[in-house]
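Researcher: Structure for this, please.
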Amino acid sequence: MQRSGFDPGKAVRTLRDEVDTLFDRFVERPLGVIKGQVVPSVDVSETDAELHVAADLPGMDEKDMEVSVTGQTLTIRGQRKQEREETGKICHVIERAYGSFSRSIQLPAAVKADQVQASYKKGVLRIVLPKKEILQAKRVEIKSEEE
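Model: Predicted structure, token format:
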């Protein structure tokens, strides 16, 4: 008696290979890039006194960016304008994303919004956010009223 050609083990391996390939493509090109959206990659780090954010925004001008802080949320907005290509040119591949974007990041600490500083150099937006002082609980001495 001959068995059918279906092999469940092979089907599972094939599915796993396809999922692995999809995951590898996602890691190489974040979802925003796959969808053609501008989504800046960011690094967030901190010291005892400050939070530091670096956002990759190559090919942009400072005037096309906006940074705001509301509570513990940092928002970076902007617009990457498409460079005008020469007429008569045939484009074979267009992978760079253009258009408006907004990226909000939940900050790990409260910051002094009025003291935030931002600078832009070589395609990287750097933001320094001084932390608010955390009020420490003060121990209160309890005095005895016994005489």
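Researcher: Any notable elements?
Model: Residues 8-28 form the longest helix (21 residues). The domain at 38-130 is CATH 2.60.40.790 (Immunoglobulin-like).
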